[in-house]
Amino acid sequence: MGNEPSTSEKSGRRRPHNVHLQEPMPAKTDLDARFTKVLVQMDLPPEKAKLLRQYDDTKKWDLICDQEKVHAKDPPKVYIDKIRRVMDPGGTSRRQRKKMFDASTQNLRDLEISLRTNNIQ
Q1: What is the pTM of this model?
Q2: What is the pLDDT of residues 48-65, one digit of tens each?
Q3: Which 3 state secondary structure label does DSSP give 1?
């Protein structure tokens, strides 16, 4: 059950970690535009950005997908407000508080990503 290998692991076949199940690689022009946008968001030194621009298209696509996974969906305030609602039990039922508390770990992860990826003003 919990520690048993999956069927694909038993047969020795493993899915590569860089397989993109959600979205196929876009056309070269769209790929380059999205890659440039990712580089700008990463705010790298020019020599590092130049090195990354030399990547082949597959590596560029991997980097784009990785960056999109950690891109914050909301500003930090949204996550802080959710955490405040968990900490302030007034006006919510025990069931609602338990549900919000169970989601608080994910809220903290999302807050961390948001703080790392959003500009601080």
Answers
A1: 0.47
A2: 999 999 999 999 999 888
A3: coil
